[in-house]
Amino acid sequence: MPEFTPLFMDQLHDLFRWRRDVRHFRRDPVPEPVLDELLRVACLAPSVGLSEPWRFVRVDDPRRRDAVRQDFTRCNADALSDRTGADALRYARLKLAGLDDAPHHIAVLSHPEPAQGRGLGRGTMPQTTTWSTVMAIHTFWLAATAVGVGVGWVSIIDPERVRAILDVDPTLELVAYLCVGYPAEVASTPELERRGWERRAPERREWIRR
Amino acid sequence: MPEFTPLFMDQLHDLFRWRRDVRHFRRDPVPEPVLDELLRVACLAPSVGLSEPWRFVRVDDPRRRDAVRQDFTRCNADALSDRTGADALRYARLKLAGLDDAPHHIAVLSHPEPAQGRGLGRGTMPQTTTWSTVMAIHTFWLAATAVGVGVGWVSIIDPERVRAILDVDPTLELVAYLCVGYPAEVASTPELERRGWERRAPERREWIRR
């Protein structure tokens, strides 16, 4: 096993600190070999039974992108209609979607009952399959941050509608729709915290004891 | 933003490669300050709306540990009874549980509807809350690997029964039961692959195009 130095540890913690949910992108594309390498690294993520249930989809077709953008707009309007006053304003100002600027759109889907892995470890907790895909997304996100590439996870969409827009195997489950590109601004503090939406809670950093 | 060097990138990829699901532990404990630091780092994980839904529970009570071990044994026996012949033998030999040797047991639970985050981003995809906790677990796992601490995720348990054993807020959802300690052996290849259970699929490392 490689020896990880204290310097590496510091840098790793920096990476966790600077891994932001990016909403503001430059429009210049990320070179294809860089994206290919990020996908290869993402596949090093853990998966239950070694099932690798993730499916990474590059969405390049402008009509599909436009349909996803429309779905986001509709879902975002619904979310806004539930809120009132200052909250709603703040919510609208968060400008949640980097959908318009990000040069790359990547949908990540998950096979709910993969043959690979032969069912190991998911009998009593079948959700561990989807969670494996979540960890692959997180791995992609961290590896991207390390090469200066930003990732924004759009969840204000209807997953079933977006899956239909992408015209992929209907048994696949949409887990994430990612905007990917070089960030137009960088920060170590979450945008939601900078904009006064929410703060981290110190009590999360304390153990519960049993 | 810190500059991440090519050397750091190589080490990061090494970290992803060597982050194993550990099943064989030494019995000596991990120093408390190390565990505390791992928890702090885990809380740098992304969370939808900055909701930080994760709750990390240290399970030290021998009676609770024993009850969890019994639950695992029962679920593992059920899983075995579903399989036949060579598969069943291989399955049994995988020795899935480090439960007996690992000095630390850490349960990770998730609040399904946290007030923190104020519902942002989870309207159409409420599962993103649980997925935030999954990313905190993955962050813990990576940070642990970097300091030579092994983590094994036990999913062959009944999550509702284990939650009851832990006697925590019944609204919390059990996501993972982790065995934590120094690994008795290290490898860059998944144990499931070394033992012939499953292999990684090269086609996962190719984009699907839309």
From TrEMBL, chains A, B:
The molecular function terms in GO held by this entry are:
5,6-dimethylbenzimidazole synthase activity
Q: Which Pfam families match?
A: Nitroreductase
Output the Gene3D superfamilies linked to this UniProt entry: NADH Oxidase
Q: Which residues cross the membrane?
A: none
Record's keyword annotation contains Oxidoreductase = yes
Task: Provide this UniProt record's keywords sorted from A to Z.
Answer: Oxidoreductase
EC number of the protein: 1.13.11.79
Judged by the first EC level, this protein's enzyme class is oxidoreductase
Where the record annotates domain Nitroreductase, the positions are: 17-182
Q: Answer yes or no on keyword Oxidoreductase.
A: yes
Q: Tell me where on the tree of life, at the top rank, the source sits.
A: Bacteria
* Name of this protein: 5,6-dimethylbenzimidazole synthase
Species name: Komagataeibacter melaceti
